[in-house]
Amino acid sequence: MSKRVGIREVAAAAGVSVTTVSHSLSGGGQLSDATRKRVRSVAESLNYTPNRLASGLRSKRSQIIGFVSDEISTTPYAGNMLLGAQDAAAAHDQVLMVVNSNRNAQLEARGIDALLQHRVDGIIYARMYHQAVELPAALSGVPTVFLDASNESSDLSSVVPDEEGAALTAMDHLIEAGHRRIGYLNNIDDIPATRGRLAGYRAALAKHGIPFDESLIALSESMTGPGRDAASRLLARPDRPTALFCFNDRIAMGAYQAAHLARLAIPHDLSIVSIDNFEVLADALLPGLTSIALPHYEMGRWAAERLAAELAGEADSPPEQIRMHCPLVLRQSVGPPLR
Amino acid sequence: MSKRVGIREVAAAAGVSVTTVSHSLSGGGQLSDATRKRVRSVAESLNYTPNRLASGLRSKRSQIIGFVSDEISTTPYAGNMLLGAQDAAAAHDQVLMVVNSNRNAQLEARGIDALLQHRVDGIIYARMYHQAVELPAALSGVPTVFLDASNESSDLSSVVPDEEGAALTAMDHLIEAGHRRIGYLNNIDDIPATRGRLAGYRAALAKHGIPFDESLIALSESMTGPGRDAASRLLARPDRPTALFCFNDRIAMGAYQAAHLARLAIPHDLSIVSIDNFEVLADALLPGLTSIALPHYEMGRWAAERLAAELAGEADSPPEQIRMHCPLVLRQSVGPPLR
DNA sequence: CTGTTAGCGCATTCAA
DNA sequence: TTGAATGCGCTAACAG
Questions:
Q1: Bases of chain C with protein Cβ within 7 A
Q2: B64-160+296-323: what fold?
Q3: What is the C-alpha to C-alpha distance for residues A24 and A332, in angstroms, rounded to an integer?
Q4: Radius of gyration of chain A (CA)
Q5: Beta carbons of B334 and B271 less than 8 angstroms apart
Q6: Is the confidence at residue A2, as pLDDT, over 50?
Q7: Model pTM score
Q8: A273 pLDDT exceeds 70?
Q9: What are phi and psi of B38, to 5 degrees?
Q10: Is residue A89 within 8 Å of A65, Cβ to Cβ?
Q11: For a FRET experiment, which of A204, A246, B18, B279 has its CA 20 to 30 Å from that of B248?
């Protein structure tokens, strides 16, 4: 290996000073285009790779964004948020340093500490399911934006899915297909999604003048097995619903199974819509499951973009707290009601 | 904010020199336990946070590991590899800087360049599906280990699943349950998994003295729909197999659907085993799908651990190329053959 | 056992 | 328009 080439080697080779090189490369200073170009080509031919540790140390900008999440692993959604954030960060010449806590506060604290030691410029504090969070103490004073997470009393920017709107979209679709007795398989946890989607369910009914019937709601854990049981309960009723709106695709898969067990054909005897658009399921089910997509990629992107803006803008832009639209993805699980 | 506290502030407050502080904190040097402890507590009380940019610049060790993958997003496996790598890295006081290329060589090159600019100590070059890869040119000379990827002609360490062993385990399970006519729904792509699992399938047959019957093999894309079609073909035969071994869980889901369509009960009329143990499917299917787990977390861990060892050991340890064992996860999709 | 000192590679005044 | 000099915060000789 040849000796590592630094800014001074480039300067020597180009016959200029290090200052000129620095300016040429970073776009700063007042240089003639000629020198700038020449320096750049010299740098390239020398295979120069700027040392961001040094420039970060000097300029107090590491160009690193910390991404802390609760669990990147189990959820299949995670990846898209990360990806969105990464793409946006890359556009700003930043790179992501990721840390996840596995829902363990102590690990999270350690991870955050590591990020801070590496002098990340800012942090994206993400959750894999939309939830209310507290800003960790260590992060006070650090530029931070919440991703798929929010905090009422905080003045930080955040982005979450529009839960209520998502449910409304799903229900509108069902109601426009002609359904009026629509069961809702809701999640059992007390999280924003549970509350927001229920609100959307009710809002849709109200909007279309359909009375709300508490008995059409069944609660279930967000998994297929429990979803199946809950759906079976609803389908066993003499006046069974003609359509089911499901909290998520895993529960919807349970609803499919319950329908099979009850010898109900989808969508002929029963229509189903859910939320997640988790393709491994929604696309695989027979028939394909019509589902509302959660905009994970877009949220990730927005968070990184927003953070970059806050890092750039010296002292403007009040925090924004966004609820992002969730689009309907049509497949084959909805048809007109039987009767 | 109080002025940022650095090593010199700590030194002043503790009444020692910066060297002593540095040594106390890093564990180096020959200090009395007393001073070491005192310095540490002073540092803590001052809320000192070491600046890794500076220490990295000076020591030429950023303590950052680059993690480059092809697509973190779509696959649900990804997370666990990242997680394993992260856990192992954290144990070595390292942190992960992640970059993914979305299967785009140009993006990958840019990402790698960014990592190199940040002076990562080493790189984990990962694929989300086991595949043969070439080491990117930019990485020559950089400590690298392959994760779920390998390169025959390279002298780098790598870890991949033991594809053949996985298939063997699955087949043994079926054969021990009494099956002899076992169909194989293989993937259609020419990748190590396709070849390895087929080899395992044949090895298992040979081991138990069962003749290989080419016609019991059906090819399918690794998705549920195509898997369903392929399974239907096999199940339509007059001498249909009593069991199906599936390339992965998505194909297995298709096999379940084909069984339903053919009015075959699982496992009464048809046993199924597959590979992936992708819980969102395997656990959700009715009955639960017996599947071989791919050791993603463990591979991720191994890769980071191995890289750390290479970074520590100056010039020992020849490269290791590991095939990792894949354990069987029992659920309810296997029973004795009907006849 | 502890302190002094000299850079790591770069960005940035300030002068020329 | 360019160059010389200074130090970001820390580690690692080397001295004491």
A1: 1-5, 7-13
A2: Rossmann fold (3.40.50)
A3: 58
A4: 26
A5: yes
A6: no
A7: 0.94
A8: yes
A9: -60, -50
A10: yes
A11: A246
Q: Where are the domains of chain A?
A: 7-57, 64-160+296-323, 163-294
Give the whole-angstrom CA distance, residue A18 versus residue A250. 59
Fold agreement (A64-160+296-323, A163-294): yes
- Is the pLDDT confidence value at A87 over 90? yes
**Is A73 a residue whose pLDDT tops 90?**
no
Tell me whether residues A96 and B100 touch, CB distance under 8 A: no
User: Could you tell me how many CB contacts below 8 A there are between chain A and chain B?
Assistant: 144
Spelled out in words, what is the top-level CATH class assigned to the domain B7-57? mainly alpha
Put simply, whether A91 touches B (Cβ < 8 Å) is no
Residues 231-250 in A contacting B (C-alpha not used; CB under 8 Å): 250
Residues present in chain B in total: 339
Chain B 113-152, residues with CB within 8 Å of chain A CB atoms:
113-119, 141
**Token pair listed for B62:** 């950023």
Mean pLDDT of chain B, nearest integer: 92
pLDDT of residue B114: 97
Give the Å distances, CA to CA, from B62 to A53, B21, B53, B92, B97: 8, 20, 7, 12, 11
Nearest by Cα to A272 from A235, A236, A238: A235
Instruction: Name the token pair of B335.
Output: 């029973």
User: What gap in Å lies between CA A196 and CA A248, rounded to an integer?
Assistant: 13
Alpha carbons A169 and A172: distance in angstroms, whole number: 5
Distance CA B136, CA B138 (A): 5
Strand C CB-contacts below 7 Å: A 4, 6-8, 18-19, 22-23, 25-26, 28, 48, 50-51, 54-55, 57-59; B 15-20, 23, 29-32, 35, 54, 57-58
Question: Domain B163-294: which topology?
Answer: Rossmann fold (3.40.50)
Give the distance from residue B212's alpha carbon to the nearest chain A alpha carbon, in angstroms: 31
The neighbour count for residue B2, using CB atoms within 10 Å, is 7
Q: Closest residue of B to A142, CA-based? A: B1
Query: How crowded is residue B208: how many other Cβ atoms within 10 Å of its Cβ?
Result: 13
Lowest mean pLDDT among A24-28, A245-249, A271-275, A312-316: A312-316
